[in-house]
């Protein structure tokens, strides 16, 4: 790297040297070394000044290198100075941080010590309160035990009295219950005897009523069959052993409500003539006189097997 400054002290020297060198060279060129030629009259030398860049010369390069070295050394010194300053600052910051950490640690220790002392004081205070509470609880427990013993003694005396009264009352109750039981047994025996007599009478009455009902049902059923048979018109196709089963629904006044075939004889005309015969009868007057209970049980719906016996083979 080359450096050049117009105010450098070496420029005049270089210019002077260059000027003298130019004069010497011009003089040598002007001298005629040949013996044959007549020397020409000497002309005044013409001086040509040439400006030389000092930075292109060896001296200029050396000075530039020295200057660059000085500047580099100055920059290095400045850098080292800055690094030293930074190192000093870092060291100061480190020491300040250590001092702060030390102070924080001391403050923490002091705080922890104070907290430990506070906790210890609190523990002692709590222990004292617990001891006082325990003493009060013990005193209260003893008082309660005394009161409980007294209460139990009173309770035992009351219980003993109550049991004695209860035993006497139980004896009286048992004697009363035994008396009532005997009276109830006698009453139940009389009631049972009366119920048995009533049951026998009811059974006899029911038996008689059932017999009367069965006879009446049989009689009216035969009456219905006879009247249907009387109203029946024999079809040409009727033959022996032909029979059809009819279901007849009656009203309480004896009127036929409807009739349907529940089992066919196999002959449609035979079945239809049987149905027509029931509708032709229209009403069984005797049913209007039958008890409603008997009617509902036996005649609300009557299944009639119509089987004439005087058919041809």
Radius of gyration: 78 Å
The largest β sheet comes out as: 3 strands, antiparallel
User: Which structural category fits the helices and strands?
Assistant: mainly alpha
One letter per element, helices H and strands E, the order comes to HHEEHHE
Helix content: 55-70%
Binned strand content: 5-15%
E-strand count: 3
Q: How many helix segments?
A: 4
Strand order of the largest sheet: 2-1-3
Q: Unreliable segments (pLDDT under 50, ≥5 consecutive)?
A: 1-6
Mean pLDDT: 84
Gross morphology is: elongated
Give the terminus-to-terminus CA distance: 161 Å
Structure report:
The chain is built from four helices and three strands; from the N terminus they run H-H-E-E-H-H-E. It has about 325 residues and is mainly alpha-helical. Among the domains are: about 10-90, no CATH class; about 230-305, Fusion Protein Consisting Of Minor Coat Protein, Glycine Rich Linker, Tola, And A His Tag, Chain: A, Domain 2 (2-Layer Sandwich), CATH 3.30.1150. Strand 1 (about 245-250) and strand 2 (about 255-265) form a beta hairpin. Helix 2 packs across helix 3. The longest helix has about 170 residues, at about 60-230. The chain is elongated. The chain starts with 9 loop residues before the first helix and ends in a 7-residue tail after the last strand. The model is unreliable at about 1-5 (pLDDT under 50).
């Amino acid at each position: 790297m080359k450096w050049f400054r117009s105010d450098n002290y070496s420029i005049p020297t270089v210019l002077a040297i260059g000027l003298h060198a130019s004069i010497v060279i011009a003089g040598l060129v002007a001298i005629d070394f040949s013996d044959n030629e007549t020397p020409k009259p000497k002309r005044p030398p013409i001086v040509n000044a040439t400006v030389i860049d000092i930075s292109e010369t060896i001296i200029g390069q050396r000075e530039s290198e020295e200057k660059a070295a000085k500047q580099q050394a100055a920059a290095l010194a400045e850098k080292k100075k800055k690094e030293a300053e930074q190192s000093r600052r870092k060291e100061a910051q480190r020491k300040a941080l250590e001092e702060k950490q030390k102070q924080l640690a001391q403050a923490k220790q002091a705080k922890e010590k104070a907290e430990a002392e506070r906790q210890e004081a609190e523990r002692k205070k709590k222990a004292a309160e617990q001891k006082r509470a325990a003493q009060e609880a013990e005193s209260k427990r003893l008082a309660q035990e005394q009161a409980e013993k007294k209460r139990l003694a009173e309770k035992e005396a009351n219980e003993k009295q109550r049991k004695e009264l209860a035993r006497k009352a139980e004896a009286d109750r048992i004697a009363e219950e035994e008396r009532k039981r005997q009276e109830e047994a006698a009453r139940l025996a009389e009631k049972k005897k009366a119920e048995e007599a009533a049951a026998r009478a009811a059974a006899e009455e029911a038996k008689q009523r059932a017999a009367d009902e069965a006879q009446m049902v049989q009689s009216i059923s035969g009456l219905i069959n006879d009247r249907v048979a009387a109203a029946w018109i024999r079809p040409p196709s009727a033959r022996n052993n032909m029979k059809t089963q009819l279901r007849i629904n009656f009203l309480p006044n004896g009127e036929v409500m409807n009739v349907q075939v529940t089992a066919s004889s196999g002959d449609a005309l035979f079945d239809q003539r049987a149905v027509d015969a029931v509708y032709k009868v229209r009403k069984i007057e005797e049913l209007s006189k039958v008890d409603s209970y008997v009617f509902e049980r036996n005649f609300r719906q009557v299944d009639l097997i119509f089987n004439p016996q005087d058919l041809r083979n």
